[in-house]
Model the fold of this input.
Amino acid sequence: MKYYILFGPPGAGKGTQAGAMAEKFNLKHISTGELLRGEIAAGTPLGLQAKALIDAGNLVPDEVVEGMIEDKFNTIKGVDGFLLDGFPRTEAQAVALDEILERRGEKLTGVVSIMIPDGMIMERIRHRAEIEGRADDARDEIILNRISTYHAKTEPLIAFYKASGRYREVDGTGTIEEVRERIFEIM
Ligand code: AP5
Ligand code: MG
Done:
């Protein structure tokens, strides 16, 4: 099985690119953000717990998303691998992912990282806010908190994965098609 991480700051284009990547390589796309929004929409206890954190642009507890990922690995069949979008997002989650994979006798295939400058994050998310209505896109201060949370907690993972030799970065600026071609080239 292949295990890819689709890495990048908020608004980099992870969700946008994931569909084509999953289709081309027969991967199951797993977005922890989408799973959490699903829990909120369904009004589950987990959703109720997560809502305030997500709406403020803060991370949910590591154990919550780690459990979700392992559950998906255990239950999804009929694919050649997984494309993890928005997970891991902390060093603890990265260590947990290694442990989950080890229990399965598997290894991380690679990290595909989409990079855009902070200024472009704001622009893209403001644009998406008009279309999708995500609560955490609604106000600039929440977007700014997501950007600073990314720099503080998630960006250190770049060094973590570079050290493993499995990290590849693509320029996330340009058209959606241009970015997709860059991704396919490195995959
Ligand atoms: P999550 O849903 O993962 O949000 P995010 O990381 O902030 O990323 P986004 O979904 O905002 O960006 P994206 O890269 O998918 O961009 P998109 O393709 O939509 O997480 C939400 C929250 O859930 C977190 O804040 C946290 O609270 C919680 N959470 C999730 N995972 C967690 C974890 N592991 N641990 C703890 N908490 C967790 O693109 C953005 C816009 O740009 C779109 O409008 C798109 O059309 C446009 N666009 C994309 N590419 C281009 C392009 N090349 N040119 C022009 N426009 C483009
Ligand atoms: Mg997304």
